Amino acid sequence: MKLHLLSLLSSIVVVGASWTKNINYRSPSEHYPSLGISIRKVVKRNDPQSPWDPTKLNFTHGVASGDPYPDSVILWTRVGPSSDNDKSNVTVSGYVQLFDHDNEKFVSVSKAPVCVEYKIASDKQLSNVADSGKVYTSSDVDYTVKIEAKNLEPYTTYYYQFNVCNSNNTSPLGRTKTSPKADDDITKVGIAVYSCSNYPFGFFNAYGNAVRKDSVDYVVHLGDYIYEYANGDYGWGQSIGRVPLPDKEIISLYDYRKRLATYRTDLDLIASHQNFPWIPVWDDHEVADNVYRDGTSHMNNTEESFIEDGGVVFDQRKMNAVRAYFEWMPIRQVEMDDNLRIWRSFSIGKLFDLIMLDTRNYDRSITDLYWNTDYIHTISDDAGRSLMGPRQEYWFYDALSKSAERGATWRLVGSQIIFSRINESAAYGDENPFDYDAWDGYTSNRNRTLSHLYNNGIGNNIFLAGDSHASWVSDLVWLGEKSYDKETGEGSIGVEFAGSAVTSPCPYGANISLAQANNYSTWLQNANDELQWQDLYYRGYYELHISKDEVQASYFGMPTVVSRNGWEISLANFTVKSGANKLQRPVGGGVVEGGSLKGGKTVQTNATLDTGNGTWFVSYADLAVL
Ligand SMILES: *[C@@H]1O[C@H](CO)[C@@H](O)[C@H](O)[C@H]1NC(C)=O
Ligand SMILES: *[C@@H]1O[C@H](CO)[C@@H](O)[C@H](O)[C@H]1NC(C)=O
Ligand SMILES: *[C@@H]1O[C@H](CO)[C@@H](O)[C@H](O)[C@H]1NC(C)=O
Ligand SMILES: *[C@@H]1O[C@H](CO)[C@@H](O)[C@H](O)[C@H]1NC(C)=O
Ligand SMILES: *[C@@H]1O[C@H](CO)[C@@H](O)[C@H](O)[C@H]1NC(C)=O
Ligand SMILES: *[C@@H]1O[C@H](CO)[C@@H](O)[C@H](O)[C@H]1NC(C)=O
Ligand SMILES: *[C@@H]1O[C@H](CO)[C@@H](O)[C@H](O)[C@H]1NC(C)=O
Ligand SMILES: *[C@@H]1O[C@H](CO)[C@@H](O)[C@H](O)[C@H]1NC(C)=O
Ligand SMILES: *[C@@H]1O[C@H](CO)[C@@H](O)[C@H](O)[C@H]1NC(C)=O
Ligand SMILES: *[C@@H]1O[C@H](CO)[C@@H](O)[C@H](O)[C@H]1NC(C)=O
Ligand SMILES: CC(=O)N[C@H]1CO[C@H](CO)[C@@H](O)[C@@H]1O
Asked: Which intervals hold domain PhoD-like phosphatase metallophosphatase (predicted)?
């Protein structure tokens, strides 16, 4: 081992275990170590001569996979001497502080590296091995392991497992799936689309339900995977036994790691990561509420906020969040030196391209921070405003064109925030009737997108959104520019499917009654021509089943998230036919089970359910118990 150390320093490739194959050592800034991690210093600090006793190490947070390509996929795990996260933001000189629960005191532990082996195979017994390797992890990357498994076959299911080197200390077995090759003629792909999972507001049953049904190929997450708040500021944590740690607004690198680690103890989230490859992007709360390029609602980028927030400037806080996110999420960093770049795209056979945007952190112009709503309203139509910045915008329009040119049937656009114009004056008042933190605050960026689609004749566009904690299904229209018939859908250029939250509360009141929620839904549906279905009441998710002829969307509502359970209600189904560029009429088949449907009915049938604590009332009959 000692012999390897020198060559390792120069070439950073090891014959035994590799540092750099653990991508987290190169992230978030490979060639500027001062912005990320200096592998040279890590190697110096971590002495492979004194390896860990394998029995002292644990796989603390399961396994995960993501960002599938036709021949490779990202695999993730965490293995360390403690489930607690690294506190090296305050410790120095190569030692990390751990709490010894038996003796009730902090102890200093040498930063020896942990050696981990991985194996990926086409069978559950892991005998047909496609790729394997050996990497290091250490406290420098919070004991996370992220590798790219290679040499894989397209659109194939694989199983994978990690183990501590030379031992039988293994991780759980994970399952994943590569993507099809761009020119593959695949017939059908299913994705589950999630957003807004707030730990202290409930159990992540929605993640588990797609696992229990085994109904999709991939999971797409549109952000708000964690929330930065102190429990007391936002959530019911204590009353349902889910206090997010650390129990304060998160700011330091340790804080963000700890928060991610707390979320990753939810059993349904663990199950989803273990069974499906994920394709996630962040929204605001992975950093902080209503974040944009230069600040957030709780933190201006000023000297005052620096003093108030314990001496951490906004830029540092953002980098803490971003580094912890890349450590913990099973995703690729497409440009290792562009540490904020998360926008990227996937070609899923000839069927579709999935374009994942970052409308938050990369280069967003100032947003609604609550004290400046009038001002943002005034400038919302300013041509210079952008959600993405010029670099990403150019890439976005180009990706739409290239997708059409290559003949992909569909274009799916993963936006965080709602694209369609939504008049919400019933809740916000007539002065500022829109959500200026969504695309409604950036109308020129929206116009440039629509103009690119209309002027280049690019059709079959399916926009996906999260962020709002409610469900919104709309024809994709350019109001004020192109005529649109809300009865037939003529004039639109696609469809927007915006989904509710995994647990985050209804935006019209956390404990709103069903009657009140439906009343608001009816108002919203009537006030917005292109909004064909709206539901505020249910927490949940939706699935898209994509084939050459049509995209089918199924929306699911969770009857309750205050306990862990596998119940769900089929709320509504929608079809988009290829070439139609609008929702199939009658929309939703004319009948839905929740919310408000334009020109259709909402039929709610009462039912009761045995919850194990006596009988509990739910509103609808066709409830699945998974
Ligand atoms: C590792 O996991 C085992 C079994 O869950 C547990 O008993 C042990 O305390 C854990 N060790 C550490 C260092 O966390
Ligand atoms: C792993 O387990 C097998 C079977 O129980 C045993 O034969 C082998 O010695 C173990 N290997 C190590 C490194 O502990
Ligand atoms: C940010 O600055 C604005 C304008 O000065 C002020 O109204 C607001 O309270 C500040 N917010 C914070 C969190 O400091
Ligand atoms: C966007 O398009 C609409 C409809 O043509 C128009 O009314 C509005 O002024 C445009 N806004 C910007 C900023 O281009
Ligand atoms: C809303 O419901 C939650 C969970 O039952 C409860 O903890 C909380 O106190 C309720 N809030 C209000 C304002 O009633
Ligand atoms: C429904 O909303 C209307 C306003 O749109 C209001 O007048 C009415 O009282 C509401 N009804 C209920 C049951 O909340
Ligand atoms: C919003 O909808 C209400 C009710 O239909 C309407 O009175 C109002 O003029 C609308 N606001 C805008 C800006 O379109
Ligand atoms: C949606 O479709 C599924 C499968 O066909 C069906 O079981 C369910 O009842 C439908 N839901 C609604 C609300 O129509
Ligand atoms: C369902 O239950 C609610 C609440 O008890 C009641 O108001 C409603 O009339 C019931 N609906 C039907 C169709 O029985
Ligand atoms: C039943 O109630 C008890 C006490 O409130 C709670 O701990 C338990 O989780 C509940 N069980 C279910 C299935 O909700
Ligand atoms: C500067 C800073 O935020 N330091 C934090 C580093 O992590 C420890 C561990 O919890 C915190 O106590 C410090 O506040």
From this structure: 192-555
